[in-house]
Amino acid sequence: MYYIGYDIGSSSIKVALVDKETGKVIGIRKQPNTEMTILAPRTNWAEQDPEDWWNYVCLATKELLSTYQIDNKAIDGIGISYQMHGLILLDVNGSNLRNAIIWCDSRAVNIGEHALKIIGKDKCATHLLNAPGNFTASKLKWVKDHEPDLFTKIYKAMLPGDYIAYKLSNTITTTLPGLSEGIFWDFKEKKIAEWLLTYYGLTKDHLPEVVSTFGLQGTVSAKAATETGLAKGTPILYRAGDQPNNALSLNVFHPGEIAMTGGTSGVIYAISDKLKSKEISRINNFAHVNYTPKDPILGKLLCINGAGIQYRWLRENLKVDSYDEMNTLASTVNIGSDGVVLIPFGNGAERMLNNKNIGSKILHLDLNLHTKAHLCRAALEGIAFAFVCGMEILMAEGIQPKVIRAGNDNLFQSEVFSNTICTLIGYPIELYNTTGAVGAARACSIQDGDFKSFRENLLKNDLLHTFYPLKDPIPYQKAYQNWKKLVEKEL
After folding, report:
1. Residues 263 and 186 in one domain
2. How much is the pTM?
3. Structural domain that includes position 60
4. Are 489 and 361 a contacting pair, CB within 8 Å?
5. What is the number of domains present in the chain?
6. Measured between alpha carbons, how far is 350 from 353 in angstroms, rounded to an integer?
7. pLDDT over 80 (residue 448)
8. pLDDT at 145 over 90
9. Of 201, 219, 245, at which residue does a domain stop?
């Protein structure tokens, strides 16, 4: 018997098939082969057609079942991970009213900023644990203001994962963590933030029925069975946004456990049971997958825009064949890159820098000394230092690290990168070969809060390596302090 997991990204749809008992990965498929189109009708807008997501879910599912000759009745559960903060609007007939406004769309920034100013930082900090920001609630308010005729036709507003669950089951639902990521949840009152909805001119009727993150959320309809190749009645057992799901995939559930990812952007996702936050703009606070009003577990998310995109830019422009070659070159250079420094914040405004955009810079380049090996090391160090800086912000919020876990990203595969972070923070980094789709599939096994078999399967199948803090941190500390001074000067 098997579980199937979906990861609904903005660049592709990934599907994973895992053995129900062992958690072993049977196969993974991705659709499309090239990146999905992101529509930009205006500057700083980003939209996608939700039907594209569904079509690729269907294609990838059929391909996976066919390739591995799996009887669809052998699928015992479905898990869904999805790009966070998007907005999909359905009419009373269940049809899309417009393209989805996705996570990287920034049209509602001013709406969120104005709401923070009028409502007040104190109330937002104590009730929402976030600034209203450019999240789903603010995007829905934008539709009300700018597309009023369409707004009157809205039956339900939902997140990308809710939409895929709806297409699978013909049932419109969401989850409590989903409400929190849309900034619809009042953590202090432990209920939907009706006061924020009222401020925005919205109502609870715009939101779907809430189901549990783990457990039966619906079953595959006859229509979806025909389109996907799944069996009618297959249960949907799990749903979460991509960052909480990445943390779940790495067995990060308890206070002090931290998940790091180093994709195009970098993310530090730290677990806390403290319902308070001073940094409601630099840090986002969401209900984690194991949150309940009685046992409020949060995921504190800090994003670093200038991460993997910086390393990719350097590889393309240095004409280096692979990241492995770059990592090897970097390892030949001394700690501190013999003085050359790279500031990696070249992917727009950085929330961790209070939304300032200082760009990416190479400083103190000596044309008689430095080579591309130095630039490779300086890039890895600069990105690693940004992660350490982010950890310092989280630790000032009360996070006390116990363990750090990371996926097998290009950045974390580098000893220079991982050693720099764990030596400066003083905690090991465990590296795992898992993905969001695999984690979503395995999460189907988690019922009634039993995480034991999930953890065992992760350790048995996916633990690759553990990086430990080096005995002499002083050279790293000197290089980091030098980098921080240069960043502060730019700020």
Report:
1. no
2. 0.94
3. 2-245
4. no
5. 2
6. 5
7. no
8. yes
9. 245
